[in-house]
Amino acid sequence: MYKLILSSLLFCIACINEPEVAIVHSGNSPESTAGLRYLALGDSYTIGQSVPETDRWPVLFAKSLRENRTPVTTTDILAKTGWTTANLLSAVYGYKPTENYDLVSLLIGVNNQFQSLSIDQFRIDFHELLLQSVAYAGGRANRVFVLSIPDWGSTLLGSGSREEIGKSIDKFNLVVKEECAKKKILFIDITPISRKALNDPTMVASDNLHYSAKMHQLWVDEALPKVKFLL
Questions:
Q1: Mean pLDDT of all residues in the chain?
Q2: Calculated CA dihedral for residues 13, 223, 130, 88, nearest 10 degrees
Q3: Virtual torsion, Cα 46, 68, 148, 87, nearest 10 deg
Q4: In the chain, is it the N or the C terminus that has fewer CB atoms within a 10 Å radius of its CB?
């Protein structure tokens, strides 16, 4: 039964038009030149599958920073729907920015879980992604933060195996939390927030698998006060 559900979900994802791999957003008004350079690394959750560009969580996060008197001049997103940690690593190895970033976020792993990939390999890949994230931040681990993997079992397409999906997501998130602790990198647990979609369908995007702007803003609201302490 679970394999049948996964096959159906894979089909649904294959039918979704994937956004571009990397996007650059201008975070401030043209006359402003002073502010943070922000890089968001991830997968469909970071690229904002099935929501408008303005509703992607990294864009909302940069907007909230500006509203809280922290200027952001650049928001770069390196992400794509369907990416595993291995896919993101491949993209990261090929991405050579000319300047360091002042802030780097990482949200990855749902496709490793979704595809039943090795959790041991996930740990190896995730550790390397943390190292690369710190490198993008000019060697400053205190300028990197990580969001936990949302629980897609809380969506309509995950309804057939919610308990099994949730337990599996928790196992991957334990790895994420442990690896962040080793590197003294800020870990922000948004998984409980993602599970609120069980009681509020407006938190789910139109594809019934990803999350809406309403959910993305909740992630931002959770992350913002914690990240402000890094700056």
A1: 88
A2: 20
A3: 30
A4: N
Identify which of 20, 24, 46 has the alpha carbon closest to the alpha carbon of residue 223.
Answer: 46
Going by pLDDT thresholds of 50, 70 and 90, the confidence category of residue 32 is low
DSSP three-state, residue 103: strand
User: How far, CA to CA in Å, does 225 sit from each of 82, 103, 220?
Assistant: 30, 14, 9
Residues 6+ apart with CB under 8 A from 217: 57, 60
Question: Coil, helix or strand for 66?
Answer: helix
> Closest Cα partner for 38 from 73, 64, 80, 63?
73
Identify whether the C-beta of residue 40 lies closer than 8 Å to the C-beta of residue 24. no
CA distances in angstroms from 14 to 82, 192, 223, listed in the order given: 9, 27, 31
Q: Residue 11: its pLDDT value, please?
A: 35
Give residue 156's pLDDT: 86
Helix (H, G, I), strand (E, B) or coil at 144: strand
